[in-house]
Every structure is written in structure tokens, then in C-alpha cells.
Amino acid sequence: MGGGWEADIDAEFETPKDGWEYRQVPPYKGRFWAFSRANMTRFAREGRLVYASSGMPEYKRYLDEQLGVPLQNDWDDLPPVSGRERLGYPTQKPIALLERIVAASSNPGDVVLDPFCGCGTAVHAAQKLGRHWVGIDITYLSIGLIQRRLMNAFPDINFNIIGEPSGLDDARHLAAVEPHQFQYWITQKIGGQPYRGGRKGADRGIDGYIYYTWNAVGAGRAGTAAAIISVKTGRNVGVAMVRDLCGVLEREKADIGIFVSVAAPSRDMAREAAAAGIWTDPITNESYPRIQILTLDDVFAGRIPKLPLLDRQAGYRRAPREAVSRQQPSLF
Ligand SMILES: C[S@@+](CC[C@H](N)C(=O)[O-])C[C@H]1O[C@@H](n2cnc3c(N)ncnc32)[C@H](O)[C@@H]1O
């Protein structure tokens, strides 16, 4: 082996000595070894050198030992929400984006607050990364969606919802001051999905759908169908409203309608509902009233519509289950 190895890289740059050899190989013409002889010897002993066919040594770098390139301001490496991740909320952000933000700006056990949490991407990321979280949203559409999303992704999750009606008075108050929010809330409370299609005010007598599966168990034939929900928040309800719902069933070719009313129905209304007849499950021959009236009292008494088998997931996109569910104690 020719040449000396006493200079380290700094000294070598100060007084470059062309032509030193390492295992009979000189550096490329006009270049110098990047490492001192001591380091080169250590790397060789550690197996960190790899040799080209010319005998030229190169230092082995392992990806998991590299710091990587710091992120710049423009994050264009995250694809938009698509496929199974998409939940149908118009402003949904990719979970990978929120995971990156949460991971970069907090530690496990910290509290993440999203005061406009939409479909809950930030709280989903916070839960996944072992943070506490508080999510706030003004609409029950969001609250219901986030509730389902988190329960699908983290089946063991435990959280509280604060601010939804917990009793009759609360519910009546919501119906009086925010009828639309009341519709969203009660529809989800009875297992349905709020209807948001079409122009505002042009719901054509439909406030939501409640999906059910008939004859799902055992009979070799099954179908998912939607009962139509109509919500009445006012004090003045009458028989004409029940007839209207019958008309909607005809128009939509639906078998069952659920008339949800804050005010108690009159006898005439109950009679009109009974006159709408029954729908019979074609396989089981089980009968179901075609128009079912449900009052707020019924809902708080735990009564639900009579349907073959509620399918609470039909009509909704299901958030994929997360592989890791790190449980954080609830803050409240
Ligand atoms: C742009 S979205 C948030 C989207 C969210 N980052 C996501 O990825 O799902 C804004 C949300 O703020 C909610 N919002 C609007 N005004 C609010 C208010 N005063 N208080 C709480 N939430 C509000 C809306 O209901 C909506 O869900």
C-alpha cells in the first residue's frame, strides 16, 4: 500500500496529496479520499465499505440511518382523499396529512383541539397517534359522522359527546331554535341517515332514510331497503302531513315511512297512519306498519321504528378499521 494516511479529511483538504492509495487503488484523478486512514480502516473492519469492480471503495449508507430531507413548505407528496378513505364529507382532508401535522406538532399524551372538526380527520389522527383530543362542530351531521367514523376505525374507543340533547326539554329546545339541526340529530338518533340531497328546502318531503335489511338471516334471499323519514318540529301537526308522507312513499316506491314528531299526534293522524296498511316481508311474512309515527317521548323511551333489521351502516361509507388503536382516557 503506497502513500500515507495520517491526514484527516480537514487536513487533507488543506494540503491535498494526490495519489495516496488504499489497497492499491488511488483516488480518482484530481480527487482525494473523503476519510482519514483511521476512519477508512475502521469502516473496513465494520464492513461499511463496498468495492466497485475497479477496487474503488465506497461507504455503505443505510436508509434507516439517514436523516432524510426536511419537508419544505409545499407538501405535494400526499395524494387527495380517495377510495375507502372517502366518507362523503365535502371538505375531508387526507388522514396522512393530519397525521403528519399532529405528529410534527405534538407528543403522545398531548391534547389536540380541532374547533371546526368537520368529518373528524384531525381527531382520528390524534386518536391513532395516542393523543387526547377535543373536537367541536356546530352541526349534528358532523357529530354523527365522526361518531361512526371513530367507532368503525377504533372499535374499542371511548369518548363523550357533549351538547347533544340529553332529555326531552333539551330536544324540544333544539327543535324550536334549530329545526334543521334537530332533524339531523333525531334522524341519526333513530338509526337513520339525514337526507341532504337537492337544493336547500327542496327535500320533497324526505328528511332522511333509515336502511334495513329484510330477511337477512337464513332465508337465502335478502335485500336492503330504505324507509323514508319525515320529521315535524312544529307544534301544529295534522292528518294532512301523514297523507303527504303516504304520497312520498308512493312516489319513491318505498314500503315504509317513519313520521317523527315533536308534538303528540292526534287520533285522526294515528287513524290515517293505520289506514296506510302494512308491508309484509316476502320471505318471513312478518308484518310492519307502512306509516309509523314516532314521537320525541317514544325516542327517549327507547322505542325505535319496527323494521326487519336495522342496517346502520348502509348508505354510509365505512371508515376502515385502524390496525393500532391506542386508547387514551377521555378528558371529560
Ligand atoms: C371546512 S370544515 C372542516 C373540515 C375538517 N378539517 C375535515 O377534514 O373534516 C369546517 C367545519 O366547521 C364547522 N363550523 C362552522 N362554523 C362553526 C362554529 N361556529 N363552531 C363550530 N364549528 C363550526 C362546519 O360545520 C364544518 O364542519
Automatic annotation (TrEMBL):
<dbReference type="Pfam" id="PF01555">
    <property type="entry name" value="N6_N4_Mtase"/>
</dbReference>
<dbReference type="InterPro" id="IPR007560">
    <property type="entry name" value="Restrct_endonuc_IV_Mrr"/>
</dbReference>
<dbReference type="GO" id="GO:0009007">
    <property type="term" value="F:site-specific DNA-methyltransferase (adenine-specific) activity"/>
</dbReference>
<dbReference type="InterPro" id="IPR029063">
    <property type="entry name" value="SAM-dependent_MTases_sf"/>
</dbReference>
<keyword id="KW-0808">Transferase</keyword>
<dbReference type="GO" id="GO:0003677">
    <property type="term" value="F:DNA binding"/>
</dbReference>
<protein>
    <recommendedName>
        <fullName>Methyltransferase</fullName>
        <ecNumber>2.1.1.-</ecNumber>
    </recommendedName>
</protein>
<dbReference type="GO" id="GO:0008170">
    <property type="term" value="F:N-methyltransferase activity"/>
</dbReference>
<comment type="similarity">
    <text>Belongs to the N(4)/N(6)-methyltransferase family.</text>
</comment>
<dbReference type="Pfam" id="PF04471">
    <property type="entry name" value="Mrr_cat"/>
</dbReference>
<dbReference type="GO" id="GO:0004519">
    <property type="term" value="F:endonuclease activity"/>
</dbReference>
<feature type="domain" description="DNA methylase N-4/N-6">
    <location>
        <begin position="61"/>
        <end position="138"/>
    </location>
</feature>
<dbReference type="InterPro" id="IPR001091">
    <property type="entry name" value="RM_Methyltransferase"/>
</dbReference>
<dbReference type="GO" id="GO:0032259">
    <property type="term" value="P:methylation"/>
</dbReference>
<dbReference type="GO" id="GO:0009307">
    <property type="term" value="P:DNA restriction-modification system"/>
</dbReference>
<feature type="domain" description="Restriction endonuclease type IV Mrr">
    <location>
        <begin position="175"/>
        <end position="275"/>
    </location>
</feature>
<dbReference type="InterPro" id="IPR002941">
    <property type="entry name" value="DNA_methylase_N4/N6"/>
</dbReference>
<keyword id="KW-0489">Methyltransferase</keyword>
<dbReference type="GO" id="GO:0005737">
    <property type="term" value="C:cytoplasm"/>
</dbReference>
